[in-house]
């Protein structure tokens, strides 16, 4: 098997037994984005911390930027239309859906 396929299989095996298809897809997507970001940093394509602070200071209160910590986040799920469409596609079809 390919190296990527092996990593995905191991990632899925590490998830809890009651995991949903959406959870699996989110985990794979998150992992791939983190890996891509790390690869970009290795190539020197990152943005210096000071530049990020300057950009973020336009949107965040000075207190948060000065303390170097992000504001509290809500725990609601992010809407991802692609996941909704895949869930509909993978859902078992009943007589009314045919």
Q: Care to describe what's here?
A:
The protein has 98 residues and is an all-alpha fold. It has a domain at 3-70. It has 5 helices and no strands. The radius of gyration is 19 Å and the shape is flat. The model has no long low-confidence stretch (mean pLDDT 76).
Query: What is the strand tally?
Result: 0
SSE string, helix = H, strand = E?
A: HHHHH
Number of helices in the DSSP assignment: 5
Mean pLDDT: 76
Q: Biggest β-sheet, characterized?
A: none
The low-confidence parts are none
Class based on secondary structure composition and strand pairing: mainly alpha
Distance between the termini: 36 Å
Q: Approximately what portion of the residues adopt beta-strand conformation?
A: under 5%
| Proportion in helices | 55-70%
Shape summary: flat
Instruction: Provide the gyration radius in Å.
Output: 19 Å
């Amino acid at each position: 098997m390919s190296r990527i396929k092996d990593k995905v299989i191991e990632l899925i095996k590490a998830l809890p037994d009651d995991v949903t298809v959406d959870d699996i897809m989110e985990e794979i997507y998150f992992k791939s984005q983190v890996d891509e970001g790390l690869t970009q940093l290795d190539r020197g394509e990152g943005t210096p911390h000071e530049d990020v602070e300057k950009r973020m200071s336009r949107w965040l209160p000075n207190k948060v930027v000065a303390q170097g910590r992000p504001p509290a986040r809500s725990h609601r799920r992010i809407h991802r239309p692609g996941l909704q469409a895949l869930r509909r596609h993978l859902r078992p079809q009943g007589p009314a859906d045919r």
